[in-house]
What does this fold into?
Amino acid sequence: MSGTNVVAWFEIPSTDFDRAVGFYEKILAKTMKREAMGPVQMAVFLYEQPGVGGAVVNGGPYEPGQSRGTVVYLDCDGQLDAVLARVMGAGGEIAFPKTELPGMGAYAHILDTEGNRVGLHAV
It folds into this structure.
């Protein structure tokens, strides 16, 4: 490992691609870039190089779920309260409320429209 980031890329599975992409675009208030990679549909979260990127995916081996182990944390750019306020209106749930991390900001867990548990973090 020669990079500065432990995570290189992440993918959040979906069963209803348009619904899932709409959910993340609504709560983060940002447009995602849609692409096709063979049989897999992908909507990439905006990021700047050399930052870590990721996408909502549909097709191939992807299956959403809230208890499959790994939790990806999305950066809320200092706007955790605003993002959490949009979750239910976008069709998601708050699974674990905002919790302060002394000296490191705060985090929360949500369930997206596909049933995935996703972390949110803001400094």
The helical segments are 17-28, 80-87. The mean pLDDT is 88.
